[in-house]
Design a protein that fits this description.
The protein is α+β, with helices and mostly antiparallel strands and 214 residues long. It has one domain: Jelly Rolls, CATH 2.60.120.10. It is built from four helices and 13 strands. The strands form three sheets. A seven-stranded mixed β-sheet has the order 2-1-9-6-11-4-3, covered by helices on one side. It has a three-stranded antiparallel β-sheet with strand order 5-12-13, with no helix packed on it. It has a three-stranded antiparallel β-sheet with strand order 8-7-10, with no helix packed on it. Strand 12 and strand 13 form a beta hairpin.
Protein backbone atom coordinates (compact mmCIF):
# COMPACT_ATOMS: atom_id res chain seq x y z
CA UNK A 1 0.00 0.00 0.00
CA UNK A 2 1.40 3.35 -1.02
CA UNK A 3 1.76 5.79 1.85
CA UNK A 4 -0.37 8.88 1.36
CA UNK A 5 0.55 12.05 3.19
CA UNK A 6 -2.16 14.66 3.72
CA UNK A 7 -0.76 18.03 2.72
CA UNK A 8 -2.26 21.43 2.13
CA UNK A 9 -3.23 21.66 -1.53
CA UNK A 10 -1.39 24.70 -2.82
CA UNK A 11 -1.52 25.11 -6.56
CA UNK A 12 -3.07 26.72 -9.60
CA UNK A 13 -6.36 26.35 -11.43
CA UNK A 14 -6.58 25.70 -15.18
CA UNK A 15 -9.21 25.20 -17.86
CA UNK A 16 -8.85 23.31 -21.13
CA UNK A 17 -11.13 24.53 -23.91
CA UNK A 18 -12.66 22.66 -26.83
CA UNK A 19 -9.80 23.88 -29.07
CA UNK A 20 -7.18 22.31 -26.77
CA UNK A 21 -5.90 25.51 -25.19
CA UNK A 22 -4.93 25.28 -21.51
CA UNK A 23 -5.57 28.60 -19.78
CA UNK A 24 -4.91 29.69 -16.19
CA UNK A 25 -7.82 30.72 -14.00
CA UNK A 26 -7.99 32.63 -10.69
CA UNK A 27 -7.30 30.40 -7.69
CA UNK A 28 -9.17 31.12 -4.44
CA UNK A 29 -7.12 31.78 -1.34
CA UNK A 30 -6.64 28.61 0.69
CA UNK A 31 -7.39 30.43 3.92
CA UNK A 32 -10.88 31.33 2.67
CA UNK A 33 -11.69 27.65 2.02
CA UNK A 34 -10.66 26.12 5.35
CA UNK A 35 -13.54 24.67 7.35
CA UNK A 36 -13.64 22.97 10.71
CA UNK A 37 -15.48 20.07 9.05
CA UNK A 38 -16.37 19.45 5.42
CA UNK A 39 -17.86 16.04 4.78
CA UNK A 40 -18.05 14.39 1.38
CA UNK A 41 -21.85 14.38 1.41
CA UNK A 42 -21.79 18.16 1.95
CA UNK A 43 -19.59 18.56 -1.11
CA UNK A 44 -21.89 16.45 -3.29
CA UNK A 45 -24.97 18.30 -2.05
CA UNK A 46 -23.40 21.66 -2.87
CA UNK A 47 -22.50 20.55 -6.40
CA UNK A 48 -25.97 19.13 -7.09
CA UNK A 49 -27.63 22.25 -5.69
CA UNK A 50 -25.40 24.45 -7.82
CA UNK A 51 -26.39 22.62 -11.01
CA UNK A 52 -30.05 21.95 -10.22
CA UNK A 53 -31.35 25.18 -11.72
CA UNK A 54 -29.39 24.89 -14.97
CA UNK A 55 -32.04 24.56 -17.68
CA UNK A 56 -29.76 23.09 -20.34
CA UNK A 57 -27.24 20.41 -19.34
CA UNK A 58 -24.91 21.69 -22.07
CA UNK A 59 -24.59 24.94 -20.10
CA UNK A 60 -23.37 23.28 -16.90
CA UNK A 61 -19.72 23.85 -17.83
CA UNK A 62 -20.28 27.59 -17.34
CA UNK A 63 -20.31 26.84 -13.61
CA UNK A 64 -16.76 25.45 -13.68
CA UNK A 65 -15.31 28.32 -11.56
CA UNK A 66 -17.72 27.50 -8.72
CA UNK A 67 -17.17 23.76 -9.15
CA UNK A 68 -13.36 24.13 -9.12
CA UNK A 69 -13.62 26.17 -5.91
CA UNK A 70 -15.63 23.44 -4.19
CA UNK A 71 -13.26 20.73 -5.42
CA UNK A 72 -10.34 22.68 -4.00
CA UNK A 73 -12.23 23.12 -0.74
CA UNK A 74 -12.73 19.36 -0.58
CA UNK A 75 -9.05 18.59 -1.24
CA UNK A 76 -8.01 21.04 1.48
CA UNK A 77 -10.42 19.90 4.19
CA UNK A 78 -10.98 16.18 3.60
CA UNK A 79 -8.36 13.79 4.90
CA UNK A 80 -10.75 10.98 3.93
CA UNK A 81 -10.47 11.88 0.24
CA UNK A 82 -6.70 11.43 0.34
CA UNK A 83 -7.12 7.89 1.68
CA UNK A 84 -9.25 6.69 -1.25
CA UNK A 85 -6.23 5.35 -3.10
CA UNK A 86 -6.92 2.39 -5.42
CA UNK A 87 -4.03 0.02 -6.11
CA UNK A 88 -2.95 0.10 -9.79
CA UNK A 89 -3.67 -3.01 -11.83
CA UNK A 90 -0.40 -4.95 -12.34
CA UNK A 91 -1.19 -5.35 -16.05
CA UNK A 92 -2.44 -1.89 -16.99
CA UNK A 93 -0.86 0.26 -14.27
CA UNK A 94 -4.19 2.08 -13.86
CA UNK A 95 -6.96 1.91 -11.26
CA UNK A 96 -10.08 3.90 -10.46
CA UNK A 97 -12.34 3.93 -7.41
CA UNK A 98 -15.93 5.18 -7.61
CA UNK A 99 -16.71 7.24 -4.53
CA UNK A 100 -20.46 7.56 -5.01
CA UNK A 101 -23.00 6.20 -7.47
CA UNK A 102 -26.70 5.44 -7.74
CA UNK A 103 -29.18 4.97 -10.57
CA UNK A 104 -29.71 8.22 -12.42
CA UNK A 105 -27.09 10.13 -10.46
CA UNK A 106 -25.87 12.96 -12.75
CA UNK A 107 -22.23 13.00 -11.61
CA UNK A 108 -19.23 10.69 -11.93
CA UNK A 109 -17.11 10.95 -8.79
CA UNK A 110 -13.94 8.88 -8.43
CA UNK A 111 -10.25 8.72 -7.68
CA UNK A 112 -7.70 7.41 -10.18
CA UNK A 113 -4.11 6.18 -9.99
CA UNK A 114 -1.60 5.87 -12.84
CA UNK A 115 1.71 4.09 -12.29
CA UNK A 116 4.84 6.01 -13.40
CA UNK A 117 5.13 6.15 -17.17
CA UNK A 118 1.59 4.87 -17.82
CA UNK A 119 -0.69 6.81 -20.17
CA UNK A 120 -4.41 6.88 -20.77
CA UNK A 121 -5.90 6.71 -24.24
CA UNK A 122 -6.67 9.95 -26.07
CA UNK A 123 -10.24 10.83 -25.14
CA UNK A 124 -12.86 13.41 -24.39
CA UNK A 125 -15.49 13.19 -21.64
CA UNK A 126 -18.67 14.19 -23.42
CA UNK A 127 -19.35 16.55 -20.52
CA UNK A 128 -17.53 19.03 -18.27
CA UNK A 129 -14.87 17.66 -15.95
CA UNK A 130 -12.62 18.68 -13.06
CA UNK A 131 -9.44 16.85 -12.03
CA UNK A 132 -7.49 17.61 -8.85
CA UNK A 133 -4.00 16.10 -8.61
CA UNK A 134 -3.51 14.80 -5.06
CA UNK A 135 -0.12 13.10 -5.39
CA UNK A 136 2.64 12.92 -7.99
CA UNK A 137 2.67 14.55 -11.40
CA UNK A 138 0.47 14.23 -14.46
CA UNK A 139 1.33 15.34 -17.98
CA UNK A 140 -1.81 16.27 -19.89
CA UNK A 141 -1.48 16.36 -23.67
CA UNK A 142 -4.16 18.34 -25.49
CA UNK A 143 -5.69 17.83 -28.92
CA UNK A 144 -8.38 19.44 -31.04
CA UNK A 145 -10.64 18.32 -33.85
CA UNK A 146 -9.68 19.36 -37.36
CA UNK A 147 -12.19 20.00 -40.13
CA UNK A 148 -11.47 17.32 -42.72
CA UNK A 149 -14.27 16.01 -44.98
CA UNK A 150 -12.32 12.82 -45.64
CA UNK A 151 -11.61 12.11 -41.95
CA UNK A 152 -14.36 13.62 -39.74
CA UNK A 153 -12.65 12.38 -36.56
CA UNK A 154 -9.20 13.73 -37.35
CA UNK A 155 -7.48 15.44 -34.42
CA UNK A 156 -4.40 17.63 -34.14
CA UNK A 157 -1.89 17.96 -31.31
CA UNK A 158 -2.10 21.36 -29.59
CA UNK A 159 0.21 21.21 -26.56
CA UNK A 160 0.78 19.81 -23.09
CA UNK A 161 0.81 20.81 -19.43
CA UNK A 162 2.52 19.20 -16.43
CA UNK A 163 0.33 19.33 -13.33
CA UNK A 164 1.73 18.89 -9.83
CA UNK A 165 -0.03 17.88 -6.63
CA UNK A 166 -2.33 20.72 -5.59
CA UNK A 167 -3.21 21.83 -9.10
CA UNK A 168 -6.73 21.57 -10.53
CA UNK A 169 -7.62 21.38 -14.20
CA UNK A 170 -11.11 21.61 -15.66
CA UNK A 171 -12.39 20.67 -19.10
CA UNK A 172 -15.13 21.95 -21.37
CA UNK A 173 -17.34 19.17 -22.81
CA UNK A 174 -15.44 18.64 -26.09
CA UNK A 175 -11.89 19.07 -24.80
CA UNK A 176 -9.61 16.17 -25.83
CA UNK A 177 -6.65 15.03 -23.76
CA UNK A 178 -4.34 12.21 -22.72
CA UNK A 179 -2.94 11.69 -19.22
CA UNK A 180 0.56 10.34 -18.46
CA UNK A 181 2.02 9.82 -14.99
CA UNK A 182 5.54 11.22 -14.90
CA UNK A 183 8.20 11.10 -12.22
CA UNK A 184 9.10 8.30 -9.84
CA UNK A 185 5.81 7.93 -7.97
CA UNK A 186 2.23 7.13 -9.05
CA UNK A 187 -0.07 9.99 -10.00
CA UNK A 188 -3.16 10.04 -7.75
CA UNK A 189 -6.08 12.30 -8.59
CA UNK A 190 -9.69 13.10 -7.77
CA UNK A 191 -12.05 13.40 -10.74
CA UNK A 192 -15.53 14.86 -11.02
CA UNK A 193 -17.53 14.73 -14.26
CA UNK A 194 -21.01 15.87 -15.24
CA UNK A 195 -23.67 13.62 -16.73
CA UNK A 196 -21.67 11.83 -19.41
CA UNK A 197 -23.45 11.31 -22.73
CA UNK A 198 -22.18 8.00 -24.18
CA UNK A 199 -22.80 9.14 -27.75
CA UNK A 200 -20.52 12.13 -27.19
CA UNK A 201 -17.58 10.37 -25.49
CA UNK A 202 -14.83 8.93 -27.69
CA UNK A 203 -11.38 7.37 -27.80
CA UNK A 204 -9.38 8.91 -30.64
CA UNK A 205 -6.71 7.41 -32.87
CA UNK A 206 -4.56 10.24 -34.27
CA UNK A 207 -2.85 7.92 -36.77
CA UNK A 208 -5.91 6.30 -38.31
CA UNK A 209 -8.04 9.44 -37.81
CA UNK A 210 -10.81 7.40 -36.16
CA UNK A 211 -12.92 7.63 -33.01
CA UNK A 212 -14.74 4.86 -31.17
CA UNK A 213 -17.11 4.98 -28.20
CA UNK A 214 -15.30 5.22 -24.88
Amino acid sequence: MTSISFQRMKGKDWIVTDNGHCESRPTPREWDLIRETYYFHEFLTEIITLLRDVRNEADEWEYLPQIRMRVRQLTINSYWLHTQYPQPCPKTGIATRTLYDEIGYPLTVQTAVFSPGVSSNIHNHGTWGVVAVLLGQEKHTFWKRVADPQFPHRIELVGEKILNAGEIVSFTPHAIHQVTAIGDEPAFSFTLYGDTQPRSRFIFDPIKHTAKPF
